[in-house]
Amino acid sequence: MTYGIHLHVSGPFACFTRPEMKVERVSYDVMTPSAARGILEAVHWKPAIRWVIDSIHVLKPIRFQSIRRNEVGAKASYAAAKSAMRRGDVNGLALRIDENRQQRASTVLVDVAYVIEAHFEMTAKAGPDDNPAKHFDMFNRRAARGQAFVQPVLGTREFDARFTLVPQGTPTPVPEETEGLGFDAPRDLGFMLWDVDHDTPGKPSMFFRATLTNGVLMVPQPGSPEILK
Q1: Do the beta carbons of residue 229 and residue 222 sit within 8 Å?
Q2: Pairwise CA distance, residues 192 & 211, whole Å
Q3: Is the Secreted keyword given for this protein (predicted)?
């Protein structure tokens, strides 16, 4: 039995930052698989499972807006914090936030809605009490109640994601209006971030050539030759 899930997510703003844009934030046209995985892990995650994104359904027109955001230019040093803990003194840890604040332009998505289609795989860390049915039920219960370990976000922390479970057997939601969505022909989205390889030294980023077909982004599965480092 395949334990697949469908999760509807939406929000007024989203920013799935393109890594090639160094200083200014510019969003991809569509939610990335890594961002989708982050939302699912916020709802339910254990070392025993690994989420795999199958596809992302786009339910609203892809529209961009330029805004300016305040970003902090510095953060507390880990080494300084560890040193302060050893000596029992917090002197020197204060950050002058006003002096380190930077205002940057961002190109973000507005009024977004997606359906994440995914499944999970058991990992080597699964114990004797772990089984797919158990984690499938746990995810469904938490998602149906709107529960999450941390607030799911649409790319960046300030853009909260609203989420609802699409029950098993229910048709996948489709756009209410197709006119103007630009889904009539395949849309080449270029190279998109698939995920980060945390098991390889240096944690290289992995990419794939993304195409939006009939409003659906099909995501390559782990180990696929379509995934490039």
Answers
A1: no
A2: 10
A3: no
Antiparallel, parallel or unpaired: β 216-218 and 205-213:
antiparallel
Question: Tokens representing 6?
Answer: 């469908």
Neighbour-count burial of 205, counting CB atoms closer than 10 A to its CB (0-12 exposed, 13-18 middle, 19+ buried): middle
What are the pLDDT digits (tens) for 47-102?
A: 999 999 999 999 998 999 998 877 666 666 667 777 777 877 767 666 544 556 67
**pTM recorded for the entire structure:** 0.84
The answer to whether 104 and 71 are in contact (CB under 8 A) is yes
Q: Alpha-carbon distance 164 to 168, whole Å?
A: 13
Identify residue 180 by its one-letter amino acid code.
G
Backbone angles phi, psi at 102, to 5 degrees: -130, 135
Angle between helix axes 132-145 and 33-43 (nearest 10 degrees) is 90
Give the Cα separation of 194 and 227 in Å (integer): 7
User: How far apart, in Å, are the Cα atoms of 34 and each of 48, 78, 155, 193, 196?
Assistant: 19, 26, 9, 7, 8
